[in-house]
Amino acid sequence: MSALPAWIVEIENLARGLPVVLVEGKEDVTWFSHFLDLHAVGWRSRAFLAAAEGKRHVIQGVTVHRPSWIGIIDRDEWREADIIAAAGRSLHLHILPRFCIESYLCDPDELWNALPAAQRDRVAEDINVWMGSIRQHIPDWVAHGAMWRVLREIHETSRFPSQLEEHPITDEAQIRQILTSWHQQIAPDIVLARYQAELTLGREMPEPKQLQQYIHGKKFFNQVIVQVLDQRFAGKGADDWQQRLRDTPILPPSDLTALLDRALAQLPSAGMQ
Q1: Which end of the chain is more exposed for a tag (fewer CB within 10 A), N or C?
Q2: CB–CB of 159/186 below 8 Å?
Q3: For the segment 149-193, what is each residue's pLDDT rounded down to a tens digit?
Q4: What is the topology classification, in CATH, of domain 6-102+253-272?
């Protein structure tokens, strides 16, 4: 029998006998802890929430090393077939219904409810203008989401240019230039054709689904939401706003509470621990 990875052993030691719930990263631990505190008071006596430092580790943790543990991973750019295949590997592996945990901070309507009362009062009269300052960025970020998916599908055989990942680039002439210098094995016409087909799918989605599942939530939050909030309320960046949003005791949306309930239901009862 092969030795357990050091990260598994470390988490077991920290858990001190509690059932373990694995998430991908430290920010996920922070946000899931916040949402669980609001939704399931007392959960900390039933489970230990730990960062596995990556989706692959979460999957390996609950399918190979510790099948009794529970894992929660980001949806990311996965298609339905990917989600079904991953969920089929273990009943203890749960896929977030949105792109990532930051996607719960991107929908203007949900974000409005999560803002501290002082901020809501300041924009109450021009709320539509404020929400419009966020929504105007959605088309570019849907385009980014389309390119993100195409590049991820190519990733298995080729490396890809970081410029197209970091921020929206919608000028096809500029995309063509980047791809031409990227790799001789990648034909720009083929990639652009795949991009256009994917972009059509993204554009056909209703706005809530675009924000929740198609757009890269973490990048959209950091590059759009934080900028809008900072400009309107003189904030201090992403970390500052994440903390302010956590300070508002708003219950998580129903799609997230449903996932949390499924995961919590798999924990052993207090008498069985």
Answers
A1: N
A2: no
A3: 998 888 766 666 778 888 899 999 999 888 887 765 578 888 899
A4: Rossmann fold (3.40.50)
